[in-house]
Design a protein that fits this description.
The protein is mostly helical. The chain has two domains: 90 residues, no CATH class; 63 residues, no CATH class. Helices cover 81% and strands 0% of the residues. It has six helices and no strands. Helix 4 packs across helix 5.
Length: 197
């Protein structure tokens, strides 16, 4: 066994630290615990702080410096460790809050854009329905049968004949359908321009 004169600074610190913990451990733990609670680090254990203080003590003595009042140095260093932990926790919380706020703003913007798009779509549908109602009954029938029910021109002619219209060729119906579409477009766009004014 070596005596204190031949021990390395780390071994001396370990022996002194162990001795001080035996003699003043309860006071040190109470001091550390009180500071942990004051800084709201409720998930931090006093022994985690003491371990960090011990590691810093080893690093300090390895640099060639000596600790003259180990209890005072331990209290001061443990308070510094707790303050650093508190700053890190505040920064993590601030970052988390900033990130959550950012996500909330993006979600709000998405919802707002979706609502605006839905409102615009609903408005366009209303306008299209209103324009459709401005068409003649025959134009409405032709467009419903051809565009909505997707019937062939032959079937469109057959359905119109069943409703009492005179029989017409496919090419005549096609021309009437084309004119009905153009009429619908012109009504729609004239309504659009009126709303802009």
């Amino acid at each position: 066994m070596t005596n204190n004169c031949q021990k390395s600074p780390e071994e001396k610190l370990k022996n002194e630290f162990d001795s001080q913990l035996r003699d003043h451990g309860q006071q040190l733990i109470a001091f550390i615990l009180r500071n942990i609670q004051q800084h709201r680090l409720f998930s931090t254990e006093p022994y985690d702080v003491l371990n960090e203080v011990y590691l810093r003590g080893i690093k300090y003595t390895k640099s060639g410096k000596s600790i003259h009042n180990l209890i005072g140095w331990t209290k001061k260093t443990s308070l510094n460790v707790i303050r650093e932990m508190s700053r890190k926790q505040v920064n993590r919380q601030k970052t988390s809050v900033d990130y959550n706020l950012f996500e909330y703003k993006i979600a709000a913007l998405d919802a707002e854009a979706k609502l605006a798009q839905e409102n615009k779509t609903n408005e366009l549908i209303k306008r299209a329905r209103k324009a459709f109602q401005e068409l003649s009954d025959r134009e409405q029938k032709i467009l419903l049968l051809r565009e909505i029910q997707e019937l062939s021109w032959k079937k469109v002619g057959h359905k119109l004949a069943l409703d009492g219209d005179k029989t017409q060729s496919d090419s005549t119906l096609r021309k009437q359908g084309q004119r009905a579409k153009e009429h619908l477009k012109s009504i729609y766009w004239s309504m659009y321009k009126e709303e802009e004014i």
